[in-house]
Each structure stands twice: as C-alpha cells, then as structure tokens.
Here is the input.
Amino acid sequence: MANDSLWLAKKYPVLKPWDIDTLVQEFQRQDLDANKGLPQRKLFDAVKLVEPQREYDEVRNALKKISLSRPDMVDQDEFVEVIAILRQGDKSGGSGVGNAARAFEGITSERAYERRTILKSEQNTSSAHTINEDEREEFTNHINLALAGDSDIGYRLPINPHTMQLFDEARDGLILSKLINYSMPDTIDERVLNRGKRLSPFQITENNNVAINSAKAIGCSVVNIGSQDLAEGREHLVLGLVWQIIKKGLLANINIKLHPELYRLLEDGETLEDFLKLPPDMILLRWFNYHLAAAGWHRRVSNFSSDIKDSENYTVLLSQLVPTECTRAPLHERDLGERAEQMLQNADRIGCRRYVSPKTVVNGNPKLNLAFVAHLFYTHPCLEPLEDTGEHAELDDYLFHDQYDREARAFALWLNSLNVDPFVNYLFEDIKDGIVLLQAFDTIFPGSVNWKKVNTRRPLMRFKQIENTNMAVDLGQAHNFSLVGIQGADLTDGVPTLVLAVVWQLMRANILQTLASLSSHGQRVTDQDMVQWANRVAQTGGQAQPIRSFSDPALASGRFLLDVLNGMKPGVVDPQLVTPGRSDEDMKQNAKYAISIARKLGATIFLLPEDIVEVKPKMILTFIGSLMAIHHT
Here is the structure.
C-alpha cells in the first residue's frame, strides 16, 4: 500500500501520502463489487465520510472530469482522483457550498450560471442546453411523491430536489419506467424490468429501451433520445422526457369518458365533436375560464404564463372552486410575490399547493403553472353532473361511434415517431390540411414530394387544404396504394374510415420498406413472408402451433408472440410468467408481457394488449414487422 500511496501522491500533488492512505482505507471499507468497484450511486456517501462538507453537485462535477474504466463503477484510484479534484478546487477557490451550485458542466461565466446553462463540446462542435432549476426541483418532488414506497426503488427515495441527483438516479431506466406506469397505468409490464442495486450495462440498456419505447407509445416525443443518453444522464434530455411523462399523466384526466361533465364547457353553437378536437391543455384553459365566468370575474386566461403572473385569476379560480376555504383577500395585496404566496396559502388549505412557488407564478413558468392547474382540475373539477337527457343523448351517441379511437391512436403515435410537425394529437383533425401526410410520404419515399407545390403557410383555406390532400392521394396511387373512391376532400373532411385507410397503407409501406432494406436480397417483403418468418422463429422459441395469417384466432392467447420473442432471444421469456391464455384476463396478461418484452429488445410498438386479444390483423402485422426489423439488425 505504501508504494501505491507514494505513486498516487506523485500523481496528485494536492494530496499527501497519509491522506491517500486514509482514502484507500475508507474506500476499501465500502460495499465493493467482485472487481473492487464502488457503484457510482454510492460515491457521494463515500466522499462525505472523508469530506463531510461536500455538496452532491460538487462531487458530481468532479466525477464528470474523470474517464471511468467501467460504466457506473468507481475504482480505488478514481475515488482518490475525485478527492484530488475537489481539493484542487479548494486551493483555487472553486469549491465549497457557494460554488457547489455552479457544478453544472462547462459553466464559464456568472451570466451562464444565472441562465443555468450546460455547455457541452464534442470534437469541433459545441451545444448549449438550459436546465431550469425550478422545473428540476418540482419534477423531482413529483417523482418522490408518486413513487414513494415502491418495492423496487423505494429505498432510493427521496431524491434531493435541490441537486442534480435526479439525472443520476434516472440512468438505469427503473425510475423512468415506474414514472411512466404512474402516469399511464399498465403501459409497462414491470415483470420485464431488470431490478437490483447493481445492474450490468446490458441490463441498463434493456431497461432504458423499455422506458424510451414505452414513452413513445404513450405519445412522448423521443426522436433524439437513445438508451445511451439516459445511461449517461444527459440532463436536458432526461428533464425533457420526465416533463413529457408527467404532463401525459396530468392531462390524462381531462377526458370526457372520465369526466362527462366536461360537456358543460361547450360554447354556444359548438358541437361536441369540435370541442373534443381541442388538445387537453386548451380544454384545461376552457375549464379555467368557465369558472372565472361563473365567478363574475372580468378577466379570462389564454395561456399558462403571462395571464397568471399577477395571481389575480388564480385567486378568483380558487375562491370559486372552494369558497369556504379560499377567499379573494390576496387581491388586496399589491406586491406580486406576496400576493402569490397568499394565493398559494389558499391552495394549501385545499391540499393543492404543488408544482409552483411564488417565484414560478410571478415568472410565469408555463410548464409548472399548467401542472398546477391540471392538479386543481383533478382534485376539484367542480362541474355539475349531466342531468338533461338531451345532453346525455349526444354524449352517448359520440361515445358509441368512437370505434375508431384505438386505430387512430396507434396511427397518430406512428406519425409522431416520424418527427412530423405539428405533433399529431387528434388524427382526423391534424391531417386535414395534408401537410403531415406529405411529410410522412417524403420520409418513407424520399424526394417524392415537390414541396414547391405544397401549400404550407397556415392557416389554409379549405381549397388549399384539398390541393394538399389531393397531392397525398396522387402520391399514394403512384406507390400502388389501394385508394379506390378516396379523394383529397375526404381526408380534409376527416372521414374516419378513409383517413385510416390512407394512414394504414403509409404505415404498412414504411414497415415493408424497412424490412426490404434490411434483407440480404433487397426484395419486397410480403405479408406471407412475415408470417413464415414468425413461424420459423417461434418454432425455435416455444411450443405454439404455426399461424396461417395475422388474423389467425390462435394469436389471441399471446403465446405465439411470446414464442417468437423467445426464439429471437432464448431465455428472454420467463415460462413461469406465461399463462395458459384461456380466459380473457390470461390472454391480456400474455399480451402485456409480449409488448413489454418487445420494447425491452428495442422494438417500437404502438399496439395495445386489446389489439392482440381481439386479433386485429393490422396491428399484429406492425408488431411482427417491428420484431423482424430489430432481428435483422
């Protein structure tokens, strides 16, 4: 040890040999793995034993300056190097509590620090990404509350909301996967997740595949996010993904199936169909204004930033929702910060002081204020139940005719995976001007769209929209789509069956084109080719009988798809978790298991368990096509 200490002392002059002896002894007392490595997650606690004054972000920043010999593991020399970097910072006046907050990588000036900007340089390029500390703090608080007591990760909570710890805890995909299931229950079959305090890099990649592909399946935009980005704790990407997941959960309650009383928000002359085309955040603003009007207040809100900064509209909303607990007294306070605090004290009385602070209200942070209002709606919607038979009749008629909802959802998610702009929320509405469809054609068949002839300046008059959708129909015909009787006007009018027919053929062309590009001969792949491939792979992975087509009733049990997955990667399916698939519940459990395993393997899957149980041929083709694609790569 003496020789090691002398060598390390020469390497790190800021440390004395006896300092190094102490550090080595302390390191060796830690819970190390078989290769004498310390899990990165435990580094801060180990450092605190020898440097009690250190802050989390200070240690994190020091670690970022080191190239670890093993992912997520710190060996003895690297531990000593971290301490040396911290001590060197002390000598140059760059450490301690005051500078711990500056532990964002690459901060070069006070101005950059105030903007909370992370600067990253790679070779000859550089980029800057802003991390909003208020958002990081509130999103961390949300995770702590949502996942407290979880049997797999409860011991890792609470995460300190005032540090960058969130980004380190999110590296292994477990917290993100759990958050997805909290926001959108049953999205992930958690039986496929790799658990434990020490996961291998491969297990972490599998978990991150599950998280990313499941986030994509609930409608999050993950175009530039890969499993390695999460494993490396890329702050701006992780924070953006966390917000999208939280937002999906908050806005999921703004649903007329869950809250039929939302019917009350229809304006004069507005149809239910037109109302439901509004994105959830716009419906939330409509709800806010409904209560402001009911309170006789003269103002209205059109956003979650400038219109709420002075807390007046919030004060009136709270007093209208729960007048026995929330008064309008804050309106008499002239200081905006103090007024916001008094308003939030009202919110606290009804259990709703979450997501915002006086600072984020006055600054008009749109994400945090949207979250605050969504939480108010969730806890205190305060809309009168429907009583009139006419109201019920229109609503029941809409829900009865909503048979296209599942396919439309899957197709919208697929379009969004192509990075179309704008984001598709409501399929039949958002493709009516043809621009999204033309973007999809140009992605699948590069160069097929002459953009000089496309009307792109929104909003478009109806005849301009039809010019675009006619162009989409012409392109479909040029690529041998079956479009008999379909005209551009049908797409602009949002005729459900015809819109679904066009988008399905686009999606199918995308799958078949991908498979052809991956095959050794480059020839066009047919449905029957896909069936034969699935049968061959399933034969090596299990006991299920071959299928004849993607409408084969045997697919309902989910066992055939599990055999395909097990054939792709032997052992990936735990036979003890597979049910006989005889009852509806058994079949659904197998389907959920198959979908989550497919995502774990890296497949992009948009179908739901119900699509498998009900044997929806189109959806099952997309499932097998995605598996084929990752198998060939």
Observations:
- The first strand starts at residue 38 and ends at 39.
- The two ends are 48 Å apart (CA to CA).
- The longest helix spans residues 496-518.
- Strands lie at 38-39, 73-74, 117-122, 125-130.
